[in-house]
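User: Last request for today: this protein with flavin-adenine dinucleotide, please.
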Amino acid sequence: MALDTDTLRQLTDSVARFVRERLIPAEAKVAEEDRIPDEIIADMGKLGLFGLTLPEKYGGLELCASDEVKVVFELCYAAPTFRGYLGANNGLGGRSILNGGSEEQRERYLPRVASGELLTAFALTEPATGSDASALKTKAEHRADGTWVLNGSKRFITGVAEADLFIVVARSDPESKGGKGVSVFLVEADNPGIVRGKNERKMGQQGTHVADLHFDNCVLPATALLGVEGKGFQLTMEAIDRSRLHMGAICSGLARRLLDESLNYAMERKQFGQPIAEFQLIQAMLADSQADLLAARALVLETAARCDAGENISMEASCCKMFASEMLGRIADRAVQIHGGAGYMQDSPVERLYRDARIFRIYEGTTQIQQLTIAKNMIRRAAAG
Ligand SMILES: Cc1cc2nc3c(=O)[nH]c(=O)nc-3n(C[C@H](O)[C@H](O)[C@H](O)COP(=O)(O)OP(=O)(O)OC[C@H]3O[C@@H](n4cnc5c(N)ncnc54)[C@H](O)[C@@H]3O)c2cc1C
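Assistant: Here's the final one, the structure of the complex with flavin-adenine dinucleotide:
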């Protein structure tokens, strides 16, 4: 649902204010303690940030894609760990329940997903299957009484320690290969047979956590199946386009922060008797970053408008994710360069944000996987005339 201009402005202004007054001042402590304070999580819930696109009838803000990306541009001006905490609720978790869930499943989970009371984690990746996700091996055995038994391991899953509900992609037809015979399950975290791995030590985004997740004869009721048995991979791919567009918006928000940090520093820092911003070689880096950022934002806004018009955006969403994450990498690198030695010091937000930014070229499909998706879509469209 598209908001009217005034309501959207009020929402983006409130998020921008929250970012500047609450999130940015808390960033360094969150990174040091590897923990987001409960009050901040509660306030993110009050602002509706856990359910940006979920329907109003389930307590979400029901934003259309064009409005959603504008809110995300503002939210991701802060360190991306805050967005990471609510990532699955807004993305592959919440949207999979919306797209594939029965009315009963939607009513049971979505209001709490939208409020942030219930935290989801989306579990697709496995130790032997990352980019080649459809080769997954986690087994879901359908028993005669209708229940399911899960066995297998998932790797690098965001929010394992905190999640109340796991959305798990598993092979339900043992004879099948690739994306066929795969189903999605809603696994409540207090279910016996779930073993949570310990949080990994990672390069950036301290405050959100990643761990392995194991299923050891984890018995699920028949009602845990999400969507149609055997069609789980399609369900996941349906949610992924919107999620890749969302990623493009995240990268654009964070890139703007890094560019603002760079410009402010360049105008203050003096060398050879003048602000370094006066040097043309510094100006070249600022200008390249500005053009990169405007291009990414324009691509994200254009793709969001196409999504709202009901067009298939598989190719465009991959372009957004690829271009914006690579653009963010370039801007983060230039930001450190413009800061000189100060950009290498841990007291500088730029040092931390540089590390935070690196993951966006890897998860939800690496740059190489986006290239393959884009080219595949180009060929398919050309062949279809
Ligand atoms: C911080 C973090 C959080 C994550 N959160 C989640 C989560 O919540 N849920 C979840 O399910 N997963 C999650 N992941 C997993 C993430 O999606 C995978 O790491 C990612 O998809 C890449 O898979 P991989 O690590 O196995 O790399 P690989 O697939 O082994 O890739 C290694 C390299 O090979 C390249 N490559 C692979 N195949 C090809 C090809 N066909 N052509 C060319 N190059 C290729 C890749 O681009 C990459 O450069 C997370 C990962 C991290 C690091």
